[in-house]
Inverse folding.
């Protein structure tokens, strides 16, 4: 068992209460910091800890916060991203159901660090229960003086509002999220200006994943060194919530050190593959990452190590496929997802993904042609010139399918049918 | 200024120039769909990709999204960029219906052009095409969504640029749909621009639909003459018919957009009722005979009763050629100077405005769009000069506060402060607003004359005003105080005659206090500016012409593209006076009562049939080229047969001439010199030739500003008369005859397309005035006037001025029953009917 | 407010209050539409006009949002809206045959509503319950580890107990 930080109070049957959270050191960071440290001090400590964003890109949180110009106008805002619509990913839901106050404290501290007095939690519709939990616990925290006006008797005030999404994958993308929150169409907006300069209603706004924010109280309370020590990786500190799903015996969300190997996660923590199943591939960080094959099982799961072999760790949501699963079919399914969830703003994504879907569908149906393969390769390359990161993400499974499983694709074309279907 | 190398060519461009625009300056046209300079860059279509070889960016990037920076080296021909662009085109064509043969955009379709230039020719996609249902978008624009390539230009233009909220983007992913919530007429009076904007045939204009192929059209650069702004256009004609008018970019005006009045108002030139036949005493004759007869008859009166017995009236829709010829005819024959305005109060205001413009303050439409505080005085932008409303909106989008100081209910597609004061109060309110704003701090810094003028401003009158504008005024004041680039916009139709001079004085004052201040007038008519320059002294007003006709002194009247019945307040009186004339000569291309009454009728060409010159309200001379030679439209002549079966050497209905040419021949026949002389020194603004000289090719594309460095008018000379407050309203309402977007302007009132959308005649009253009189919204009110009873539907507004009656001069309303233009309608003369 | 008068007094007041609490009215557009759709059954044209009045947005501006999202229904739906996840993990766990089962049991096609007006079945992308795949959502309540039998049980229970709260659709 590795040290449990975010899941310290996680229980199988119920949500940790505020009291339980406090007993485990909850809200200590808030009283430690608020009114005593400056916002800059908070940023500095988080920067020393090198906390990296958990929403998919791994961007250093403190660097983002420091992007809020010192002289910027008020009000400023903080947004906790609990949209989590990346297929395979469910850690945010588990975290809310484990210890909601950790998120609230993390948000308040992020607000304190950046001079914001209002935060929004953006929640997807299928997480209605999370939204209700958060609303209920916000009220409790407010009653206890951890949120609201003059927190802990200081002149720092911080409010949190739960904002329910109408439900679309693109809403998770930070700039699209800000549009969605303001009641505009959730198309992404290319920076500059960055949200930290002009975000919600033209004001400086910090957007972080809720897991990122949940780390903040622990870093401030225990210090950067402690935080670095949690990890097995020199570049990605802390623990990470890994979601494992697919053909494993024990799917679930596990808090493990950064840098732990893929093999250990799958074989030990997720209980290995189901009886009769052998590992064929996995997507290591949600649908928008590249397939990792059995060659890659010993890669340490941290941002740098995965990047070093030309892959992305993404949300660390591992979807495991076995030898009997058709990866053309799986990739078709993923492409269908992205094509449907494209916001429709830019041409590569809006038109290119349905095109790819059509090609994959034809291959899977037995109507594939040899020339589809170079066409798909070229199109995957072209998708990188889309407006936002959705389309490059969508290209990842397709491109890696062609890289690692070209034979399987060719077999479909040769046999004019899916070899996995009997 | 940063330098960039594109395809081996180097160019230096101003800061914040996009790479795509820098390339255009080098003559390299990078493909684009979503990008449009006026709308800004959004990077949606991805077809403008180029490869960045050196500099801060590397690799394939969108040239519309990157500002030029020093050290950039860019290739538009790099394989990777070319391949990507070709791929984008293929994507865009996946679902396109390929219905070019029946598409009105065909031949002037950006999608066609880019598909060919991008090298996409072979269809690889085997999937089925997406299809959409179209919507009914009203009388102007047809909708064909299957052709859409989702560039987002339409929704961005419609909502962001214009501020209307009934067309937009719905759905998601590859189902994205541009349209309305439900079928219905588009609300924006700028909707026609969708036709020009759309890079393919989603929006095509209904009047020209299925009538012509674009490659068959004759096209020429033209100017819009449906208001005084003179937006630049392209006229399109074929089969002796003008089919379409498009917007044309003019850098000084700052956009390529036009309003729907300007776009769909051209119908007068084609209409069957257009008088095309010369007549003498009700007999149809050849134009040459009619000309001779006109000259003879005029000569007879000239000889018998002297030159003072002949009066000439032009109009603000005359071209400059016509106006100068009319002036030179009058000068040559010793006639009284021509009159170009029916309403003498307006005439005075226009003349003052024209005399007040000078280079130090005069701004163009684009200048309004870049102001940081715009106050519009006695002007109703959307109704009088629609594109001004859009320019003001752009100023708002850049952060300006917009203030409208006007008695009418105000409709502006942008948030603004409306201060509803009566015409008599405008000077005082404006004066004290500026006075208050400049009051603090700046003393001593101003030149003495300016200082004196500032001191003379009535600081208090604004705040005594009997209207509860308190909070708004504070906002306005503080914005004006902070402003660095204020712009004063001033109307000329309903203001007091000295309001334009006051605005000029205030603009000069603010300029010395702030370093910069813009002045922008709105005038009544496309060439009101020319009319003001060329008409005689103020005494020769149209009212005097009428009186002189009544007394029998004026025996002959020459009406040059002018129908005074539309403007003169008392129709029967004018008719009686005109019936006394020995000779009425009418030159026109519009049907009118004057034309019907004429002894000699001489048909003239329209804008589309002769090269002509107009001076817009800021003194910009602009040239319009004929697009065709006119004649009875083929459709009318052949009763719709196509191809036409009637053949002959003579083009029917072409026996007309430009009004100026008609006048020239009359003058020659009468022995006058007939030489065009532009004697007013203002026609020679120092640099450049007179606007009527030189070859068309030498003329500057943006037009030529005809205003002096400093105005000839003595500034700050008339300050006392500015602030005499108006008479007490008493038991009456002040009548304001005004322009409306559709339905009042003379030329477009003859457009079948606009007739379908023009509102029913109505008039406006403040809701409290209405309730005091026992009236409410939609009541039909009968006004018992000198000339009979006028019945009109009432609209009420809470924000307009008290004590006024706003009556749009709708062409369907017989309103001309008033004693005078500046008249009060007593309460007891109004009743519910 | 001509259309908003269609709402019960209490609800109208609540919505107006909620709208006033936001930084802008627009911010509340999704919440207001969700509330109205629970009230009216779906976002009918009339409901759109109510929302338009409450939020001071044009119907088109609301349509721009309503048609973007998965959980705003511009067409009539049943009392229970079943969103069946069809993304990768559920797909791997037999989503297709479960969907077939569900639809044949309800005798409808995907996107349709049962004749009794009780059920509508819609596809949806990954619900975030991959650890409980295959999963579906009924009026925003999650049901995971689905089997044919479990689906039968859920449908029977819902059909037999129409007094069950409909919850948020
Ligand atoms: C298409 C797309 C979807 C995304 N969805 C999510 C999401 O559901 N949750 C999330 O936290 N980040 C998501 N992101 C990443 C966000 O844009 C953003 O980087 C993140 O919320 C920042 O938080 P972090 O720095 O704490 O990771 C998404 C990005 C893209 C391109
Ligand atoms: S890649 Fe383009 S269409 Fe796709 S989600 Fe991003 S902006 Fe929208
Ligand atoms: S013109 Fe640059 S992306 Fe469309």
């Amino acid at each position: 068992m590795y040290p449990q930080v975010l899941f310290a109070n996680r229980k199988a049957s119920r949500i940790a209460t505020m009291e339980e959270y406090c007993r485990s050191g909850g809200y200590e960071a808030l009283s430690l910091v608020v009114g005593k440290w400056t916002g800059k001090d908070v940023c500095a400590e988080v920067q020393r800890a090198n906390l990296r964003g958990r929403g998919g890109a791994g961007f250093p949180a403190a660097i983002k916060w420091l992007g809020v110009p010192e002289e910027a106008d008020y009000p400023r805002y903080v947004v906790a991203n609990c949209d989590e619509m990346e297929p395979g990913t469910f850690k945010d839901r588990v975290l809310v159901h484990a210890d909601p106050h950790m998120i609230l404290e993390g948000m308040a501290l992020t607000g304190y660090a950046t001079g914001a007095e209002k935060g929004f939690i953006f929640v997807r519709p299928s997480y209605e229960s999370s939204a209700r939990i958060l609303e209920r616990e916000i009220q409790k925290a407010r009653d206890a003086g951890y949120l609201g006006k003059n927190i802990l008797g200081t002149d720092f005030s911080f409010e949190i509002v739960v904002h329910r999404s109408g439900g679309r994958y693109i809403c998770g993308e930070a700039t699209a999220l800000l549009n969605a929150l303001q009641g505009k169409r959730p198309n992404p907006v290319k920076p500059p200006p960055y949200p930290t300069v002009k975000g919600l209603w033209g004001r400086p706004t910090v957007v972080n994943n809720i897991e990122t924010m949940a780390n903040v109280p622990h870093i401030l309370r225990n210090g950067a060194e402690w935080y670095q020590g949690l990890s097995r990786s020199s570049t990605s500190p802390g623990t990470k919530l890994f979601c494992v799903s697919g053909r494993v015996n024990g799917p679930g969300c596990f808090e493990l050190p950064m840098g732990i190997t893929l093999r250990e996660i799958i074989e030990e923590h997720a209980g290995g593959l189901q009886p009769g199943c052998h590992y064929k591939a996995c997507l290591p960080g949600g649908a928008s990452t590249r397939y990792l094959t059995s060659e890659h099982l010993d890669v340490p799961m941290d941002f740098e190590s995965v990047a070093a072999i030309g892959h992305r760790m993404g949300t660390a949501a591992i979807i495991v496929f076995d030898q009997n699963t058709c990866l053309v079919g799986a990739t078709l399914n993923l492409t269908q997802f992205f094509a449907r969830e494209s916001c429709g703003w830019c041409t590569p994504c809006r038109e290119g993904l349905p095109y790819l879907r059509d090609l994959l569908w034809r291959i899977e149906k037995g109507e594939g042609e040899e020339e589809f393969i170079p066409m798909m390769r070229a199109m995957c390359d072209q998708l990188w010139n889309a407006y936002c990161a959705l389309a490059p993400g969508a290209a990842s499974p397709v491109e890696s399918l062609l890289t690692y499983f070209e034979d399987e694709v060719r077999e479909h074309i040769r046999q004019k049918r899916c070899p996995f279907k009997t | 200024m940063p330098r960039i190398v594109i395809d081996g060519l180097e160019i230096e461009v101003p800061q914040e120039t996009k790479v795509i625009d820098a390339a255009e300056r080098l003559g390299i046209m990078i493909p684009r769909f979503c990008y449009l300079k006026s709308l800004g860059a959004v990077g949606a279509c991805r077809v403008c990709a180029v490869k960045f070889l050196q500099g801060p960016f590397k690799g394939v990037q969108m040239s519309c999204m990157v500002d030029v920076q020093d050290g950039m080296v860019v290739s538009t021909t790099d394989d990777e960029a070319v391949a990507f662009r070709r791929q984008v085109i293929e994507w865009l064509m996946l679902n396109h219906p390929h219905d070019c043969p029946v598409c009105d955009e065909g031949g002037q379709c950006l999608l066609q052009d880019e598909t060919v230039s991008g090298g996409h020719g072979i269809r690889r996609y085997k999937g089925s095409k997406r299809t959409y249902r179209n919507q009914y978008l009203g009388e102007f624009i047809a909708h064909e969504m299957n052709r859409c390539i989702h560039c987002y230009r339409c929704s961005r233009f419609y909502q962001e640029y214009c501020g209307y909220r009934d067309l937009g983007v719905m759905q998601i992913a590859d189902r994205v749909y541009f349209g309305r919530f439900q079928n219905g007429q588009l609300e924006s009076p700028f909707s026609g621009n969708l036709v020009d904007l759309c890079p393919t045939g989603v929006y095509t204009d209904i009047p020209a639909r299925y009538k012509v192929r674009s490659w068959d059209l004759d096209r020429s650069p033209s100017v819009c003459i449906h208001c005084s702004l003179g937006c630049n256009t392209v006229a399109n004609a074929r089969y002796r018919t003008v089919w379409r008018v498009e917007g044309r970019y003019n850098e000084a005006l700052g956009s390529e957009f036009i309003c729907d009045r300007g776009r769909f108002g051209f119908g007068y030139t084609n209409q069957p009722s257009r008088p095309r036949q010369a007549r003498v005493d009700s007999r149809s004759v050849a134009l040459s005979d009619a000309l001779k007869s006109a000259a003879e008859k005029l000569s007879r009166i000239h000889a018998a009763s002297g030159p003072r017995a002949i009066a000439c009236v032009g109009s603000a829709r005359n071209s400059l050629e016509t106006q100068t010829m009319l002036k030179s005819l009058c000068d040559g024959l010793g006639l009284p100077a021509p009159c170009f305005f029916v309403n003498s109060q307006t005439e005075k205001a226009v003349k003052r405005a024209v005399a007040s413009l000078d280079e130090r303050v005069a701004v163009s439409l684009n200048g309004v769009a870049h102001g940081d505080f715009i106050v519009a005085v006695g002007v109703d932008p959307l109704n009088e000069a629609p594109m001004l409303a859009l320019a003001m909106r752009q100023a708002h989008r850049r952060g300006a506060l917009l203030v409208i100081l006007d008695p009418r209910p105000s409709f502006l597609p942008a948030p603004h402060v409306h201060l509803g004061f009566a015409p008599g109060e405008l000077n005082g309110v404006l004066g004290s607003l500026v006075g208050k704003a400049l009051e603090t701090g700046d003393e001593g810094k101003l030149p003495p004359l300016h200082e004196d003028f500032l001191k003379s401003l009535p600081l208090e009158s604004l705040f005594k005003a009997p209207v509860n504008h308190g909070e708004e005024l504070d906002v306005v004041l503080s914005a004006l105080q902070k402003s660095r680039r204020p712009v004063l916009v001033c109307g000329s139709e309903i203001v007091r005659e000295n309001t334009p001079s006051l605005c000029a004085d205030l603009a000069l004052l603010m300029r010395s206090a702030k370093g910069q201040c813009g002045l922008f007038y709105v005038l009544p008519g496309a060439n009101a500016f020319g009319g003001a320059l060329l008409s005689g002294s103020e005494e020769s007003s149209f009212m005097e012409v009428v009186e002189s006709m009544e007394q029998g002194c004026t025996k002959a009247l020459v009406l040059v593209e002018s129908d005074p019945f539309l403007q003169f307040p008392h129709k029967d009186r004018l008719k009686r006076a005109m019936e006394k004339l020995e000779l009425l000569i009418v030159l026109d291309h519009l049907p009118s009562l004057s034309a019907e009454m004429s002894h000699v009728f001489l048909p003239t060409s329209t804008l589309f049939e002769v090269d002509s010159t107009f001076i817009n309200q800021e003194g910009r001379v602009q040239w319009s080229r004929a697009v065709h030679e006119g004649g009875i439209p083929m459709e009318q002549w052949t009763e719709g047969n196509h191809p036409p079966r009637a053949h002959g050497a003579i083009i029917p209905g072409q026996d007309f001439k430009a009004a100026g040419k008609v006048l020239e021949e009359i003058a020659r026949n009468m022995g006058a010199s007939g030489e065009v002389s532009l004697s007013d020194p203002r026609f020679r603004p120092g640099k450049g030739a007179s606007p009527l000289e030189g070859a068309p090719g030498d003329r500057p594309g943006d037009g030529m500003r005809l205003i002096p460095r400093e105005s000839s008018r003595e500034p700050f000379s008339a300050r006392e008369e500015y602030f005499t407050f108006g008479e007490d309203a008493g038991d009456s309402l002040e009548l304001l005859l005004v322009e409306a977007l559709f339905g009042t302007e003379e030329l477009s009132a003859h457009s079948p397309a606009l007739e379908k959308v023009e509102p029913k005649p109505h008039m406006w009253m403040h809701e409290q005035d209405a309730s005091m009189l026992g009236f409410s919204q939609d009541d039909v009110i009968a006004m018992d006037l000198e000339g009979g009873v006028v019945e009109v539907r009432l609209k009420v507004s809470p924000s307009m001025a008290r004590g006024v009656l706003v009556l749009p001069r709708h062409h369907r309303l017989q309103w001309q029953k008033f004693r005078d233009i500046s008249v009060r309608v007593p309460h007891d003369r109004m009743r519910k009917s | 407010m001509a259309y908003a008068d269609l709402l019960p007094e209490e609800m109208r007041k609540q919505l107006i209050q909620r709208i006033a609490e936001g930084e802008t009215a627009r911010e509340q557009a999704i919440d207001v539409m969700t509330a109205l759709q629970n009230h009216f059954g779906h976002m009918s044209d009339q409901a759109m006009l109510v929302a338009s009045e409450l939020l001071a947005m044009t119907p088109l501006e609301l349509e721009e949002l309503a048609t973007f999202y998965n959980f705003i229904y511009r067409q009539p739906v049943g009392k229970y809206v079943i969103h069946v996840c069809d993304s990768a993990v559920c797909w791997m766990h037999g989503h297709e045959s479960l969907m077939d089962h569900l639809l044949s049991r309800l005798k409808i096609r995907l996107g349709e509503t049962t004749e009794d007006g009780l059920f509508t079945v819609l596809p949806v992308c990954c619900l975030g319950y991959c650890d409980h795949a295959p999963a579906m959502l009924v009026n925003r309540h999650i049901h995971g580890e689905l089997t044919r039998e479990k689906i039968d049980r859920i449908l029977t229970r819902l059909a037999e107990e129409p007094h069950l709260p409909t919850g948020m659709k």
